Amino acid sequence: MYEELLQEIGLSLNESKVYDALLALKEASVQEISNKSKVHRRNVYDSLNKLMEKGLVSEYFETAGKHFKVINPNMLLELLKEKEEKLNKFLPAMQEVVKVDEKEEAYFYKGIHGFKNYLQNILDTKETVYFIGAKAFWLDKRLKHFLPNFERERKKRKIKFKHLFDYEVKESRPEILKHVGKPYKFMPKKYSSPTAVDIFGPYVVTFVGVKPGELDADPLMFVMKSRRLADGYRKQFQFIWDHCK
């Protein structure tokens, strides 16, 4: 019943079968477990020992011999936490390897589905996003069913936003300010344009044909993936930020 799930969280095939059989039997002998799980008696012993080491199963004695039972399924959560803690120790080193090997490339996304790919890139990168010439096009009607899930994931992954809005957004779409939160600034009116540039991680994404509150009818996003390029754009962003009110 739970074999597939148990394997997904890290138990071996036989461990999953034995544990699943014990859940159904509540308590049983090795032979009963073997019959129920369809695992050879010798392999049942081996699996039970491993499950006991993991704190998932206990043994006790009856006149008929050894019997086994599941202790507390909540221990499965502890197993997951241990795996997560182990992984977290090595993630920084893994991320450094990925940064070194990041392939520089250029391509484009098109349409609303392309915009969703761009949003997924933000979630996957898990780094602060810098917006130049922001237009509040998150408010586009075509995104209303997708953005709530994106926002939940963004906050869960602690991804920060830093916006340099076009001047017009302040008057035409002020609701975006509460939506994205601080920090944000507004560029001088004479620098407004129908373009926008977003920088996050190794990505520099340029939008064309955008205006306050909406994307183009068929959005087009030019994507440049280069950590060196993105770092340069971040410096330019900081210069503009420092000179805006």
Please describe what this structure looks like:
A seven-stranded mixed beta sheet has the order 4-10-9-8-5-6-7, with helices on both faces. It has a three-stranded antiparallel beta sheet with strand order 1-3-2. The protein has helices at 3-8, 13-25, 30-37, 41-53, 75-100, 111-125, 147-156, 169-172, 175-180, 227-242, and strands at residues 27-28, 57-62, 65-70, 105-110, 129-134, 161-165, 184-186, 195-200, 203-208, 220-225. Helix 2 packs across helix 3 (30-37) and helix 2 crosses helix 4. The chain has ten helices and ten strands. The chain has two domains: 3-75, Orthogonal Bundle (Arc Repressor Mutant, subunit A), CATH 1.10.10; 105-242, 2-Layer Sandwich (Endonuclease, Chain A), CATH 3.30.870.10. Helix content is 48%, strand content 21%. It has 245 residues and is α+β, with helices and mostly antiparallel strands.
CATH-wise, what's the superfamily of the largest domain?
Endonuclease Chain A
**Approximate helicity band:** 40-55%
Helical segment tally? Answer: 10
Going by helix content, strand content and strand pairing, the class is alpha+beta
Record field, number of beta strands: 10
Nearest-integer average pLDDT: 87
- Order of strands, main sheet, comes to 4-10-9-8-5-6-7
Report the span from N to C terminus: 61 Å
Unreliable stretches: none
Largest sheet: 7 strands, mixed
Describe the secondary structure blueprint for this structure.
Elements: H1 3-8, H2 13-25, E1 27-28, H3 30-37, H4 41-53, E2 57-62, E3 65-70, H5 75-100, E4 105-110, H6 111-125, E5 129-134, H7 147-156, E6 161-165, H8 169-172, H9 175-180, E7 184-186, E8 195-200, E9 203-208, E10 220-225, H10 227-242
Parallel strand pairs: 5-6, 6-7
Antiparallel strand pairs: 1-3, 2-3, 4-10, 5-8, 8-9, 9-10
